[in-house]
Amino acid sequence: MLRLLLNLIWFVCGGLLMGLGWWLAGLVAALSIVGIPWARSCFVIGNFSFFPFGQEVRSHRDLTGRNDWGNGPLGFLGNVIWFLLAGWWLAIGHLASALACFVTIIGIPFGLQHIKLTVIALAPIGMAVVPTSRPSGGGAA
């Protein structure tokens, strides 16, 4: 229930606008055949940007324990191209949203989430959106 509440507040505090920004970048990337891999990533991260609570972004290397093309030289080149064409625009949008959220004490957690998305906007290749893992142990759920 708390996750739903946080996601609804997030959606109003910049999640809708930035999710649409990611989707717009995905649509522009999809216009060219070459941009389709970036477009798919934009839609996945755009959905994450709409409702981030209960999910996290992890490196493919952390998830699989091995390198793939997204963590190697091709991934680096793809991230450089992404940064030059769309990444810095999305990063600026997330930074502006974070600053707006930091104006109030209640908005600080949402601003921190925008900062996380800023980092993702700069270099999304080699990353995956996964459900948040719950800590194991004797705590209450």
Structure write-up:
With 141 residues, the chain is mainly alpha-helical. It has one domain (2-131). The chain has 5 helices and 2 strands. The protein has helices spanning 2-30, 36-50, 60-64, 73-101, 108-122; strands spanning 55-59, 127-131. A two-stranded antiparallel ribbon has the order 1-2. Mean pLDDT is 83; it is low at 136-141.
Short description:
The protein has helices at residues 2-30, 36-50, 60-64, 73-101, 108-122, and strands at residues 55-59, 127-131. The protein has one domain. The protein has a two-stranded antiparallel ribbon.
Q: Count up the helices.
A: 5
* Average pLDDT over all residues: 83
Biggest sheet overview: 2 strands, antiparallel
What is the general shape?
globular
In terms of topology, how is this protein built?
Layout: H1 2-30, H2 36-50, E1 55-59, H3 60-64, H4 73-101, H5 108-122, E2 127-131
Antiparallel strand pairs: 1-2
Helix pairs in contact: 1-2, 1-4, 4-5
